[in-house]
Amino acid sequence: MGLLSDPNRRRALISLLTRLNAPICVVCYMAGVAWFMGLAFEPFTLRTYMSENAMGSTMVEERFPAGERALGTGREFSAHKKKAGGMPVDWLVKTMQSRGLEVFTQRFSRRLPFPDEDKERYMVKGTNVYGILRAPRAPRTEALVLSAPCSPGDDNNQAVGVLLGLAQYFRNQVFWAKDIIFLVNEHDLIGMQAWLEGYHHTNTTGMDWSPLQGRGGSIQAALSLELSSDVVTSLDLVLEGLNGQLPNLDLANLFYAFCQKIGVLCTTQGKLQRNDWDSVSGYSHAVQTMMLMVMKQASGRPWGDHGLFLRYHIEAATIKGINSFRQYKTDATTIGRLLEGMYRKLNNLLERLHQSYFFYLMPSLSHFVSIGYYMPAFGLLALILLLRALDLWIQLATPPPRTEDGVADAEQMSSPGVLSVLTPLVISHLTGVALYTLPIHFQEIAVEHFPVSETEAVVLTAIAVYTAGLALPHNTHRLLTGRGTENGWKVLKLVAVLYLAVLLGCTALINFSLGFILALTLVPVAAFVTPDVPKALSAFIMVILSPACTLLFSVFLFQELQEMPVSFLDGWMLYLSVISQGILDHALYGSLVYPLVALLVYPCWLLFWNILFWK
Amino acid sequence: MAAPLTLLLLVAVTVRAALYRSSLADLISERVEVVSPLTAWKRVVEGLALLDLGVSPYSGDVFHETPLIIYLFHFLVDYAEITFMLADVITAVALYLSVKDYNKQVFRKQKYALEADRYPLDCLELIRSPKEMQYIPLKVAMFYLLNPFTILSCVAKSTCGLNNAVIALFVLSTIKGNVLLSAIFLSLATYQSIYPLTLCAAALLYLLQRQYIPVNLRRFSFWWFVAQYAFMYLGSLFVIVGLSFFLLGSWDFLPSVYGFILSVPDLTPNIGLFWYFFAEMFEHFRLFFLCVFQINVFFYTVPLSIKLKEHPVFLIFMQLAVISIFKSYPTVGDIAASFIKHHKASSASSLNIFLVSCVLLACSALFPVLWHLWIYAGSANSNFYYAITLLFNVAQILLVSDYFYAFLRREHHLSHGLYLKRKDGSEATLVLK
């Protein structure tokens, strides 16, 4: 309070902030980026540890013996799948029933807004089959889920085999205190969405599905299994879910603890962890792992079938078997034992997993960075926006050289300001609405008039609307007031900077990675744009730093990090497919990234574009 | 001036009517920031249903409105939307008229003071000119009607809008100098939610000033006027409570309304300070901390009345702000009401106002986000939400103290001159300590 109300000290503070504004901003930006890069350095991270008492101290023995038989069932499943040309519903029902489960099926159908060219589907019809193992020792109020997708082709047959093998083995155990639901879902996430909506009696995306005939208690945790070979070299843990949501860290800890105990190689983001953190290559390895996680989280899409569980407060992860050229192999029995151990410990839970962190980044499977450590990186970037806003406010508040009626003059200048700020705001938001609605609505017209497929039509319309937004009338204020005033753009910039700060802050809270990546590119734009900078060069820089180009760079960077670099043409095709996937994710599962970018981030960027061309 | 006001009213009503028709209305009326257990429309409907069934609406633990409100809506339930829009319009018009009237008085006072050469020469630029003041009433009305907080609480049909209307009418009748109406509206406001009780002192000071009765504890005329006002206030309060009793046929409503406000049994999160503390507290300290928390609202009346006894209208608005910060179930509607201030704080420190409005803006955006993370996503927890609540309240307190400081500074300049000199002749600045 003293600092705010003491005029002398405040004057000193203000003069310091205005005089050193640009250097402070630059320092903040560097510090923000440096902080973020430092997160991957092992001494700055915490070791993971099990927080949940119910899972920590209890010992369990894993005795699952029947790996070979499970693989046999998998082969049988694959044969029936080929015969049925899809999900072998009857065979699955019969097999699950013979293993002593209560078996139910659910039909669902969904018409996609436009054909999905990646997965080659448009009209989707399918059936989920699930069997419930009723808990013999408890009142059946809680449940765990183990799911395996029934994928087209030869994928994931072993996963279904292991699932059925575990079902048979679990049936003979007496210590289950929670119902265990074994789910085989068709059409990956679409089937999962139908099943979850049916289980929880919600319908958020307008999908058709038949109601579930049987259900267990409230689901506490879920694992999704993806296994396409008889032996694996390592198991990969996938955590990123819808809208960048992550499961409780204890689930990852549990997986890691059992991998250590049983002696299975485990990875996250497909990267093994290394012990040489003090060497350059070790550090860059950790940075790669963390950046992959950041990119995946920022995309806002579910990276495995578990991704939709998180929306319902269910902690879930996907375990993926990877078979590479290493010597050391793990067989199906060991994987079965690992899953058995995890389910035994989850079975011991007394309450939902809540002890450990929900906001974290993982530079390796054994180390994590929690929200308190990574938020300052974003905070430093957001601080730049606040400093710029403060600077603009002081410029606006200090009256111009005092004339006889200085006060009255200032008021006359600020009164047309409202209108000249409101018009660009409305125009850019209308462009955003167009970007959000037009691509899907105009696909038929586009297909009629141009030689493109529906998917291409949607993506190209989106890009066209985006580009057209740049050419919108930027000097509406001149029509309204005759000339743009000096204060006009400052007011507009003040509004835009504050708008961006609030927007990025909210985004970073929900999905840190997305907020941080957007802040990295948008904050410099917001900081340097004025009408006085050289036009052509600044326009070029602004386009480079616009959200669409950020996405393009992200695609290349992601490929680079996965050690699968692509040529420019392939990258471009990938970019187009990423856009279409983003729109589809929004329509199918309610992912928020596409509407966020179209309705809020893009209009905000357009405001800065507007300021650049202010005359 | 009537034409812009009509236009403003039309715009405000259109915005509200459009929002009532949209799908947002349901969403808004569920937000904890907008409705409290005291003012939620859902609960009024529940109370009405119980009343129709012949059950006392207070028999459950759902309904906490006063009996007059429920009988009002017994007749008006089909026109609820119009009622709430009308309440907002009445509030705005009442504020408009009272500010206009108050401006006239300020001018008169200023003229006398100028003629008597009471102002120092160098502070002429602090003196208000008619041109400057002309738009202030309209600005105040606009600020109330187009404030997003007010719009939200009107669309959610929070009965807080009705309370605001009663308080605005009280302000109007006080400023017009109508002692009886002032007492009646004050008692109505008190009846609705106990806290406006603290406005009593401010109203009394204003009316005394208007009737040229000095505040002197030894004078008979002072005590006589206080007794008159107290009689009218308590009498009308008694009549209203008695009326409620005869309408309802029981005293059920007393514990269910006032007990509910004072003892805070419902700890649903809201934007106030109570819920988190009382959820965390050991049960046997509850009574003590209830007293500590509740006394905040009433306690500031004494020092503020002493400091501001020459400026009772400013005192009324300070009191409203204090109530909206410290009451047990605050909503954004209350805060909207408390923002209304028509003292153009001419020397208000612009930096503080900027910081505070940034914080308020950010908080308003963060409330729904953190609520989502806590309740729906399950990844954040109540601490995140409470942190934002605290920040929001700190910003409000800063805002109030800033206005207070600016007001005091203006008064100081008016009596001591704008350009202060220290004893040694160098320029001095005012410091608030």
TrEMBL record, chain A:
- Organism equals Cyclopterus lumpus
Q: Which Pfam families would you find in this protein's record?
A: Gaa1
Example of a GO cellular component annotation carried by this entry: GPI-anchor transamidase complex
Annotated function: Component of the glycosylphosphatidylinositol-anchor (GPI-anchor) transamidase (GPI-T) complex that catalyzes the formation of the linkage between a proprotein and a GPI-anchor and participates in GPI anchored protein biosynthesis. Binds GPI-anchor.
GO biological process terms, alphabetically, are:
attachment of GPI anchor to protein; GPI anchor biosynthetic process
UniProt membrane topology term: Multi-pass membrane protein
Subunit annotation: Heteropentamer. Part of the GPI-anchor transamidase complex, consisting of PIGK, PIGT, PIGS, PIGU and GAA1. Interacts with PIGK.
Q: Does the keyword Transmembrane helix apply?
A: yes
> Which residue ranges traverse the bilayer?
20-41, 418-437, 457-473, 494-527, 539-558, 565-584, 596-614
- State the name under which the record lists this protein: GPI-anchor transamidase component GPAA1
Q: In which pathway does it act?
A: Glycolipid biosynthesis; glycosylphosphatidylinositol-anchor biosynthesis
Coiled-coil residues are none
Q: Does the keyword Transmembrane helix apply?
A: yes
TrEMBL record, chain B:
Key word Endoplasmic reticulum present in the record? yes
Name the UniProt key words of this record, in alphabetical order: Endoplasmic reticulum, GPI-anchor biosynthesis, Membrane, Signal, Transmembrane, Transmembrane helix
Localization per Swiss-Prot or TrEMBL: Endoplasmic reticulum membrane
Q: What metabolic or biological pathway is this protein involved in?
A: Glycolipid biosynthesis; glycosylphosphatidylinositol-anchor biosynthesis
What's the family?
Belongs to the PIGU family.
Organism encoding this protein: Cyclopterus lumpus (Lumpsucker)
Coarsely, its chief localization is endoplasmic reticulum
Q: Which Pfam families match?
A: PIG-U (PF06728)
Signal peptide (from-to): 1-17
Q: What is this protein called?
A: Phosphatidylinositol glycan anchor biosynthesis, class U
Provide the GO biological process annotations: attachment of GPI anchor to protein; GPI anchor biosynthetic process
Q: Where would you find the membrane-spanning parts of this chain?
A: 68-99, 143-172, 184-208, 229-251, 257-278, 285-306, 312-330, 351-377, 383-405
GO cellular component terms, A-Z: GPI-anchor transamidase complex
Membrane topology note:
Multi-pass membrane protein
Question: Mind telling me which InterPro entries this protein's record contains?
Answer: PIG-U
User: Which top-level group of life is the source organism from?
Assistant: Eukaryota
